C-alpha cells in the first residue's frame, strides 16, 4: 500500500501518496484503447478519491500555485480523469480544458467534477493537439503529466504545447539513463509479443526542453527525481531564475 505523505512547496500543501508508478502509466495514441479503457479510468478515479495526487503531480500543482493561478485558464493534455485540473481550480484557476485521444475517462471525470462542484468550469475534448493544433485555443497554462514519454513525436507534441501556453508550461518525464532505456525496450518487447501496438519512449530530456525553449519559453523550475522528473517553463516576460529541486 502506498504511504501517505505531505508535500510543501512555495507555501502550498498537497495531499499526496507515494509515487511508485512506473512508466507504464503513460499514454500513447497507438493502442490507447487497448491499454487505457473504462476500467483503468475507474482505477485512477478511485485512487484519487482515496489518496489524492501522486507526488509528481503534486509537485507540478505546487509549482503552478507558487507562480500564481488567480483567474488562469488551464489546458491539460492527456489529463485522464482530471485530478490535476480539480486541484488547480481549487487553488484559483478559472477554467480548464482537457484533451484526450479517446472518451474512456469521460464518465469518471464527470463524476469527480460534479462531486467537487466544478463541472461547469471544466471542458473535455477528443483532439490530438500535435496533429491538429489549430483546433485548440491558447490557455494561460499548459500541463502534460506522464504523456510526453509515450508520444512518439515529442518535438511535435511539445511544440504544440508550448505554442498554446501564454504564460506557463509544465511537464513530467522519466529520466533517460540505461535503466529507463532498458525498461522501455523490455516493455515494448512485451507489448509486441502480446500483439499490442502501444509503445513507451525514453526521449532525451535536454532535447525536450530545447523544443519548448525554442518556442519562446524559459526554464525556471526543474525537479530531478529517480523515476519522474518535472520541468516548469515560462514565457520570457514571466520568467525568473531557474530553481532546481533535489529529490
Task: Give the arrangement of secondary structure elements.
Elements: E1 4-9, E2 12-17, H1 32-35, H2 38-51, E3 53-54, H3 55-67, E4 73-77, H4 83-90, E5 95-100, H5 106-116, E6 122-126, E7 139-144, H6 154-163, E8 165-173, H7 178-193, H8 205-213, E9 217-224, E10 229-235, E11 243-245
Parallel strand pairs: 2-3, 4-5, 4-7, 5-6, 7-8, 9-11
Antiparallel strand pairs: 1-2, 8-10, 9-10
Helix pairs in contact: 2-5, 6-8
Description:
The protein has helices spanning 32-35, 38-51, 55-67, 83-90, 106-116, 154-163, 178-193, 205-213; strands at 4-9, 12-17, 53-54, 73-77, 95-100, 122-126, 139-144, 165-173, 217-224, 229-235, 243-245. It is an alpha/beta fold. The protein has a single domain (4-245), classed as Rossmann fold, CATH 3.40.50.150. The strands form 2 sheets. An 8-stranded mixed β-sheet has the order 6-5-4-7-8-10-9-11. Strands 1-2-3 form a 3-stranded mixed β-sheet. A hairpin with a 4-residue loop joins strand 9 and strand 10 (229-235). The radius of gyration is 17 Å and the shape is globular. The relative contact order is 0.15.
CATH arch. level architecture: 3-Layer(aba) Sandwich
Tell me the number of strands. 11
Fourth CATH level, the homologous superfamily: Vaccinia Virus protein VP39
Radius of gyration: 17 Å
Tell me the structural class: alpha/beta
Number of folding domains?
Answer: 1
Assign a percent range to the helix content.
25-40%
| Percentage of residues in strands | 25-35%
> How many H/I helical runs?
8
Amino acid at each position: 500500500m502506498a504511504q501517505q505523505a505531505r508535500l510543501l512547496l512555495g507555501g502550498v500543501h498537497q495531499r499526496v501518496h507515494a509515487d511508485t508508478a512506473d512508466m507504464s502509466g503513460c499514454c500513447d495514441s497507438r493502442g490507447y484503447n487497448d491499454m487505457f479503457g473504462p476500467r483503468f479510468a475507474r482505477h485512477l478515479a478511485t485512487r484519487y478519491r482515496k489518496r489524492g495526487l501522486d507526488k509528481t503531480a503534486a509537485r507540478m500543482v505546487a509549482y503552478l500555485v507558487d507562480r500564481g493561478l488567480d483567474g488562469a485558464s488551464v489546458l491539460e493534455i492527456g489529463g485522464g480523469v482530471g485530478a490535476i485540473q480539480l486541484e488547480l481550480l481549487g487553488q484559483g484557476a478559472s477554467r480548464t480544458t482537457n484533451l484526450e485521444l479517446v472518451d474512456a475517462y469521460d464518465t469518471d471525470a464527470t463524476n469527480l467534477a460534479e462531486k467537487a462542484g466544478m463541472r461547469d468550469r471544466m471542458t473535455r475534448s477528443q483532439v490530438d493537439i500535435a496533429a491538429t493544433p489549430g483546433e485548440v485555443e491558447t490557455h494561460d497554462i499548459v500541463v502534460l503529466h506522464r504523456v510526453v514519454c509515450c508520444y512518439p513525436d515529442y518535438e511535435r507534441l511539445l511544440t504544440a504545447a508550448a505554442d498554446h501556453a501564454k504564460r506557463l508550461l509544465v511537464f513530467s518525464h522519466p529520466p533517460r539513463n540505461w535503466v529507463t532505456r532498458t525498461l522501455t525496450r523490455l516493455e515494448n518487447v512485451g507489448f509486441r509479443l502480446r500483439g499490442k501496438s502501444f509503445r513507451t519512449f525514453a526521449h532525451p530530456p535536454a532535447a525536450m526542453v530545447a523544443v519548448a525553449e525554442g518556442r519562446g519559453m524559459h526554464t525556471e523550475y526543474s525537479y530531478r527525481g529517480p523515476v519522474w522528473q518535472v520541468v516548469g517553463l515560462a514565457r520570457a516576460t514571466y520568467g525568473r531564475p531557474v530553481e532546481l529541486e533535489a529529490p
